[in-house]
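Proteins fold reproducibly. Take a sample protein:
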Amino acid sequence: MDIKISDLKDVCDILCKYLDNLVGKPVVRIPHDRYWDIQYPERYDEANANPPIYGPKLSRDWTTLEGILKNPHNATPLALVSLSALLRAIGDDPNGVVSRSPTTTKKLGARVPK
């Protein structure tokens, strides 16, 4: 699959504007720090039914990204992984509440977890 970087930028901008309108304040709250992840290259190994799972921290991911804000020369491809973890956490819970209310879920067009 080939994706134009300009399209990625456009999608990110659209989704950030959407999030800004959804949350209605300049800060998004992430109520948890640890998450489960599978490291590369196991993340893409479809033959491995039981890849090793580890528990990184979103705060550590954010520290990496803050370093890039302070000095853009610190940008690396691996920083995209940190960004993706934060975006996933925000997408899972954009209003910073552990369980979604039916109103929020309907607004997001998401499924209510059982």
